[in-house]
Design a protein that fits this description.
Four copies of one chain form a homotetramer. Chain A is α/β, with parallel strands linked by helices. The first copy, chain A, is 27% helix and 20% strand. Chain A has eleven helices and eleven strands. Chain A has helices spanning 14-17, 28-31, 55-67, 90-93, 115-124, 152-155, 166-177, 220-229, 233-236, 258-261, 293-305, and strands at residues 49-51, 72-74, 108-110, 131-140, 180-182, 185-187, 193-199, 206-214, 247-249, 267-275, 278-285. In chain A, the strands form three sheets. In chain A, strands 7-4-8-11-10-9 form a six-stranded mixed sheet. The first copy, chain A, has a three-stranded parallel sheet with strand order 1-2-3, covered by helices on one side. Chain A has a two-stranded antiparallel ribbon with strand order 5-6. The longest helix of chain A is centred in the first third of the chain and has 13 residues, at 55-67. The first copy, chain A, is globular, with a radius of gyration of 20 Å. The two termini of chain A are 30 Å apart. Mean pLDDT of chain A is 94; it is low at 1-5. Chain B binds chain D through residues 21, 142-143, 147-157, 201, 203, and chain D through 21, 142-143, 147-157, 201, 203.
């Protein structure tokens, strides 16, 4: 059965039906948008449909849109690991979009990936050829669980060192985003990634402590250079949503901190050091922008720049 | 120059001079204790002097006490890494105390070690022979920085991924506690330990995510058995401050949590899993008891049981 | 329709079906209690049935128990304001229980009252004859909304100055608890009480700032004496759950604080001062003990002491 | 003795010497400002000197500046209650500035007043003639105590119902700001104000629950109208820092909240109700802008508009 929005919402104004929790009011430009249904007939003239549906009903709706000849950019997790569907973090693997050129007719892509994978893949990309394996421990903010996802009594002054399904997703999606492209499919990067995820009492921003085992001797300056000079197609084309520096290396000794260093679209990196052949770095990104809505907008901009849209 | 307590405090009652911050009142038994000076003459009849002095003045006072023929158990960090001075976590390396039998006259031992090293060394001990190297990421509570150590505006809703000197101490002290004993000195264990420490907005309890690279194939059941069956001299002699289970393996999927699983003297362990030859476990301990006052009491009890005191 | 527990729970052990959130494990004595249904036939031999049912179904179950000839002590809010049903805070109005002696057959009482009314009524009782009106502003903890009642994102670092229905309840229930007793009914005290309630990011403990307009000139010493000497029947009979001092006057300048001064059954009072004829005091009590389970136990003990049970 | 900045700072760039704690970097325009000393010779050409010195040394520096013929706008608390020195909250009592026209030579004014008085005086002003007395309970944020003013362990999950000197200041300063002007001095409004101040674990924003006893019968609509229509000279002259609506009446049932309704220069008001002749309203303002730097800028703008500067 295809999901239908409760009939009461279709046809009404966004400003009337939204439960607005964050600071300030509903922005004026959004208040008067009329909600439409998920039925393909309501999207006939769209170049692309952006889907941010709940995971349990996303694929049934998206399949129907695909059957009706529409293009879909979806941030729901089902089918993310389908080897024929691109999973895109624009600066990291925009090249993967070229697989769509082989597709006859319409298509679907998955984006953003898991919000933490979106953040981690950024600083790993320019170092990828140096890395043999990675140990990752995340400290993820409460907003990743949704506005009502965690009660105050459960998480305040506490750490919950478990997020259901998250460790497997980060491993698999990192491997896919950083993976190899074949004419008709993607294959994983293939390096071992050991992930432990925790939830901390922070509102916004996901942090990842990365210990990467390297395959050769380099020094920290070399690493810092690679990270801070990293630019990709969104920067070269100066796409509207692209951050100037996709990776911000911060050299304050106690960076990056969610309360001080969070940037909507850049990943902040600090505490870079090397001991033996183990590189340590800490990455921090905005799970609600780089890890969610922002990355989708940047992906659509990238597709336009590539004439795929 | 030897440190002198401000003259105003010597001779007065503890209950009058203490700044009491925690819940409840100063316990009755402590209220009327008369404060003495740090001068050896004030400790002549003591079997042992417990020193919890600030690091910057500890060693000069402790040296004077030693020169005067007194025994000292010190929790200040100077001289902790002196290869001739035992650094004791009773369940883990009570055998190291035997070096004192060789000492003619009086002695000093260091205890507790760094609070995080005290917690981590516990679950590592029964697995030590299996481990080739370790990646450790800590999430440490604010009380580790002292009552006034971190302002609300600095740490609330934030993570500060840096604690001065902490990573070096954890590496070095773990290696010493788990190290080899020679007639007149200790040598480090010698395994690489990669440590990243962070401060999280939690009041009490230090957590460590440990990824241990193993030297052979074992399964999680084997590891759980070793951990949960671990007992040591304090348990065998049923010392008053010894926890029944020094390591509590909790099998709730989201354990251990500071708000739910913190035990004063036991280390709580959860999320045990193995992938390839990498063992993951999470340890949680009470930095103010197992990592501070409690461990000192247990060490003194252990010394009495061994007739060293 | 009478509420029925989902059949799956009846007959099973408490330890198996409870969702246990707080620190530690389910206490051993409670683990093996077998759950029974709400049907009167399951309570035939009970001297009294304690009801802590959700408000929406409480009265229908309780009525059925009453019809079956059982006695009920209920902490659900429906019928609390029924002028023929006692609403009891033992130290404050245990005399109200005497109305039950007139009742032929079985009875129901309501207890605890609203948790904030339970706390505030305590220090008001010994001053009642001095008071003309009261301005009350509460700072209530999150646990008052239930374990899942408020999300972290909603209340952390925030104040929500509204709690649905709370201000009306505090006014009405205070007036009833402090009210006059007639042979067959209670009438309200009748003094104006102006209440504003707020929710603050505190886990446990409700605080109330009370500005009481007095009807004559008294000094703070006089008030402190009345408060700190207050004892009632539960203290005189040394009932097991009765606190020694029902009102603890704390003279630390910054008391009472939830983190330092919360007592399970006593109400902590501080900041007593008088200006013109306005008395200011701040009361703090444990909403989960004095305001919930603890008060019910103490009420049952009081009823036994009075031979009503 | 006049305070001297440590010589090391004078002559250096602001960006080099500042301890920057808040999110982001030091703004570019501020980075290269050269610090000068507090000596009058360093301020000779200034139209006015803005003083934000610590209270303990402020007046000695400010006196020296006055003796040297300079004008001073000071936000330090000494001399705020001097009846000959204006204490200004622009929208509320800009008329008080006219006293300066009588002054021969240079002058000093105090601004902002106590941050909480600055916030509360705003919604009281348009209702002043209706009010006989006020009961005020504040819930003040931690930033009011300074960046390092309160430790995490002291205030997290806690309420501290005492702020040294604050209650007296709010009473006195409200009475002065709302007071009567004579040719050469100010006299207090003269209405009783009963104030209790508390500190809550909120980062920014001070809230005040106000119960105002009225001198005649009005309804809430009348009050809402007076508040929401309130404009003053800064609005009429469209001064750059003036908010369009100095008082924002929010009709969401659970407003105002620090996390959702805080505005830099406006005071947000909610929960307006009247019972008997007691008006209840809750005011929320930004202690760091309306209560500190912002109000000073607006005062200087107001003085320019009035040709006093």
């Amino acid at each position: 059965m295809v999901y239908q929005r409760p009939p009461g919402k279709v046809g009404r104004k966004y400003g009337e039906v939204v439960h607005w929790f964050i600071a300030g009011d509903v922005p004026e430009y959004a208040r008067d948008i009329t909600l439409v249904s998920t039925d393909p007939s309501d999207h006939k003239s769209a170049d692309v449909v952006l889907s941010a549906l709940p995971n349990d009903i996303a694929w049934s709706v998206e399949s129907k849109l695909l059957d009706a000849g529409l293009n879909v950019v979806s941030n729901a997790s089902p089918e993310r690991m389908n080897p024929r569907i691109p999973l895109i973090n624009p600066e990291v693997n925009w090249e993967h979009l070229s697989i769509l050129r082989e597709v006859k007719g319409n298509w679907v892509i998955k984006n953003p990936p898991n919000c933490t994978a979106a953040i981690i893949s950024m600083p790993v990309k320019p170092l990828q050829d140096l890395i043999d394996s990675m140990h990752i421990v995340t400290l993820q903010s409460v907003s990743g669980a949704g506005y009502l996802g965690l009660s105050y009594l459960a998480i305040d002054g506490n750490v919950i060192p478990f997020i259901k399904g998250e460790e497997e997703k980060i491993d698999a999606e990192l491997n896919k985003i950083l993976g190899k492209q074949f004419p008709d499919r993607f294959e994983p990067w293939g390096k071992p990634v050991y992930v432990t995820t925790t939830r901390v009492p922070v509102k916004y921003g996901h942090m990842a402590v990365i210990h990467a085992v390297l395959n050769k001797d380099v020094d920290t300056e070399y690493v810092i250079n690679r990270l801070s000079r990293f630019k990709s197609l969104p920067q070269e084309r100066e796409l509207p949503t692209a951050p100037k520096e996709p990776i911000k290396v911060i050299n304050r000794v106690d960076a990056p901190q969610p309360a001080r260093d969070l940037d909507p679209m850049s990943v902040s990196v600090g505490r870079i050091s090397i001991k033996n052949r183990v590189l340590r770095l800490i990455a921090l990104g905005d799970n609600l922008v780089r890890g969610a809505a922002g990355i989708t907008i940047l992906t659509v901009e990238t597709m336009k720049a590539l004439n795929i849209l």
